[in-house]
Automatic annotation (TrEMBL):
Record keyword Transmembrane present: yes
Subcellular location: Cell membrane
Keyword Transmembrane helix: yes
UniProt keyword annotations, A-Z: Cell membrane, Membrane, Symport, Transmembrane, Transmembrane helix, Transport
GO terms, biological process: dicarboxylic acid transport
Database matches in Gene3D superfamilies: Sodium:dicarboxylate symporter (1.10.3860.10)
Topology versus the membrane: Multi-pass membrane protein
Stated name of the protein: Proton glutamate symport protein
Gene Ontology CC annotations of this record: plasma membrane
Taxonomy, superkingdom: Bacteria
Record lineage: Bacteria, Bacillati, Bacillota, Bacilli, Bacillales
Length: 423
């Protein structure tokens, strides 16, 4: 009789529980991190290794098959419009929850455990010294890479998307001559997805490593004095998922619960690793199976990783108000509107920067006259909250792909329902 194997989601949950337990036992043992962390780093490096060929091959093929410049342009403006509206709403919603529940009131800054933000400060200072620091202009300029190979080596998604679209249009324009190239791209794509299926077998080890090192570094005790902030962020995130994304999904004829069922493995992995990159290739593939045309899924989802980080945007607005309340600074309505606008601009300019949420907040708080050192007090819980906002980012971009497909009247609902029934 063949032995039944433990499913991958179950393995990840077991790794999560074991990691929390071991992390609590080893709390403060920095030496242990050097032995455990590499397990997670290896997994993320393997995922990053295949992201560039997947985006380049899938998007180039999709654009080449569409072949219509007007259609591609329509995808672009519709996608960016949707992203701007949803990110703005996420920031507004975060500000609303921050004003209603006031997570920073009544706390004594001197009694909170202080983390180290020196590495974030260095990144923020470097960004501010850039010619077009923290602006949409910077983002637009950097979309066009002076060196294609360098952009791919750095893993910068927006330049890779630009090159992929441009190359896809070139393939479409030369007609039948492009077929050998398209065959090669299709073969590479199939091979890379086979590689991903093997890489995902290491996911439980990565989850174990990341959770263990997080608990070792910060400990569960870091949650206690900042419990109110954590609860406000969690409530805001769940409200956004089930109400905002739920309504958008319903308009598209899809239940948000069905989407969560579809992506349950990817959400669990994204939560555990606090990395959207760890699930990007699989989410693209699943959305294609779910009825979103390949050209839309290949364009919208990678672009969303730079322009549509709803969870991060919401968290940033709550954290900014938390710091203001912590130091007794009463921001007027006008100042809060300026804060929201500044967060919108800086979050786009910082897309892809490690620790982007903290870096964005550092640059934003300084410009608003708030004490950026207040962020050092929430470093202990930032990693935990990052895990949750990563899930919101993944769901937000998945809903975006369905919405754009619906807007284009090309969403195949029957295909999606059929695929969901097989899970």
């Amino acid at each position: 009789m063949k032995k039944k194997r433990i499913s991958l989601p179950a393995q990840i949950l077991i790794a999560l529980v074991l990691g929390i337990g071991l992390g609590a036992i080893l709390h403060g043992n920095v030496t242990a991190i050097g032995y455990i962390q590499p397990l997670g780093d290896i997994f993320l490096n393997l995922i990053k290794m295949v992201i560039v060929p997947i985006i380049f091959c899938s998007l180039s093929l999709a654009i080449a098959n569409v072949g219509d410049k007007a259609t591609i342009g329509r995808y672009g403006w519709k996608t960016l419009l949707y992203f701007v509206i949803m990110t703005s709403f996420a920031i507004f919603l975060g500000s609303l929850f921050g004003n209603i529940f006031k997570p920073g009131e009544g706390l004594d800054p001197s009694l909170l455990p202080e983390g180290d933000i020196s590495s974030y400060e260095q990144t923020a200072t470097t960004a501010e010294e850039t010619k077009y620091a923290n602006s949409l202009i910077d983002t637009v300029v950097n979309i066009i890479p002076p060196n294609i190979i360098d952009a791919m080596a750095q893993g910068d998604l927006l330049p890779i998307i630009f090159v992929s679209v441009f190359f896809g249009l070139a393939l479409a324009s030369i007609g039948e001559k492009s077929q050998p190239v398209k065959n090669v791209l299709s073969g590479v794509l199939d091979a890379v997805f086979w590689m991903i299926s093997k890489i995902l077998l290491l996911a439980p080890l990565a989850v174990f490593a990341f959770i263990t090192t997080t608990i070792i570094t910060f400990g569960l005790s870091a949650l206690i004095p900042l419990l109110k902030l954590c609860l406000v962020v969690i409530v805001a995130m769940f409200f956004f998922i089930f109400i905002v994304l739920g309504l958008v999904s319903k308009y598209c004829g899809v239940s948000i619960f069905a989407l969560i069922k579809l992506l349950k493995n990817e959400l669990l992995l994204a939560f555990s690793t606090a990395s959207s990159e760890s699930v990007l290739p699989i989410v693209m593939k699943k959305m294609e199976h779910f009825g979103v045309p390949r050209d839309i899924a290949s364009f919208v989802i990678p672009t969303g990783y730079s322009f549509n980080l709803d969870g991060a945007a919401m968290y940033q607005s709550i954290a900014a108000l938390f710091v203001a309340q912590l130091y007794g600074v009463d921001l007027s309505i006008g100042e809060q509107i300026l804060l929201m606008f500044t967060l919108m601009i800086t979050s786009k300019g910082m897309a892809g920067v490690p620790g982007a949420s903290i870096v964005v907040l550092l640059t934003t708080l300084g410009s608003m006259g708030l004490n950026p050192q207040g962020l050092a007090l929430i470093i202990g819980v930032d990693r935990i909250l990052e895990m949750l906002r990563t899930c919101v980012n993944v769901l937000g971009n998945s809903v975006a792909a369905i919405f754009i497909a619906k807007w284009e009247k090309s969403y195949d609902k029957e295909k999606g329902e059929e695929y969901l029934s097989t899970l």
